[in-house]
């Protein structure tokens, strides 16, 4: 497979239909805000390891979650009822993305959230496109997740937990809040059993792009900082 090599920032990403069977679309370029915006607005995301060039992906099929179809496991309901954790938004973004990078994942050798990713998404966060949801136990940050928002479209990126159920709690509260804000679709990227338990499902890439474009064109209020959802 001869992937498209991005040689300059002015060179656009190729059409998503040009991706290979695994979903890889292009190699190279930099994680500038303009390139990231172009990528996400087309349904493309970066995923690569340290000491490698940036790799751009658009898999088929695509795992998504419709906020109205969120499934809450029975074990989580007592925790939600007694408000086991406090959930905030955008109060400690860099701490969340760095903790996501530190999580050991049995199915991965190392982390894809390398320092270049941390710096790029932190800069994009300051421009209002990337958001963190944080779970607190007292004054301690114990879980959370982050992702990208364009219009009424949210692209989930990664999560972490330092106490049992903390990331699940933040995710449930975050998705419930997103639904009240008008989010229509959450991109979960790759299929995992963990996300399927929340109600995520697979749709074709073509259907994903269609629904994504529709959601991106919906205007909803900006997300700033909330001490509690």
Automatic annotation (TrEMBL):
<dbReference type="Pfam" id="PF03588">
    <property type="entry name" value="Leu_Phe_trans"/>
</dbReference>
<comment type="similarity">
    <text>Belongs to the L/F-transferase family.</text>
</comment>
<keyword id="KW-0963">Cytoplasm</keyword>
<dbReference type="InterPro" id="IPR042203">
    <property type="entry name" value="Leu/Phe-tRNA_Trfase_C"/>
</dbReference>
<comment type="function">
    <text>Functions in the N-end rule pathway of protein degradation where it conjugates Leu, Phe and, less efficiently, Met from aminoacyl-tRNAs to the N-termini of proteins containing an N-terminal arginine or lysine.</text>
</comment>
<dbReference type="InterPro" id="IPR004616">
    <property type="entry name" value="Leu/Phe-tRNA_Trfase"/>
</dbReference>
<dbReference type="GO" id="GO:0030163">
    <property type="term" value="P:protein catabolic process"/>
</dbReference>
<dbReference type="InterPro" id="IPR042221">
    <property type="entry name" value="Leu/Phe-tRNA_Trfase_N"/>
</dbReference>
<keyword id="KW-0808">Transferase</keyword>
<dbReference type="GO" id="GO:0008914">
    <property type="term" value="F:leucyl-tRNA--protein transferase activity"/>
</dbReference>
<dbReference type="InterPro" id="IPR016181">
    <property type="entry name" value="Acyl_CoA_acyltransferase"/>
</dbReference>
<protein>
    <recommendedName>
        <fullName>Leucyl/phenylalanyl-tRNA--protein transferase</fullName>
        <ecNumber>2.3.2.6</ecNumber>
    </recommendedName>
</protein>
<dbReference type="GO" id="GO:0005737">
    <property type="term" value="C:cytoplasm"/>
</dbReference>
<keyword id="KW-0012">Acyltransferase</keyword>
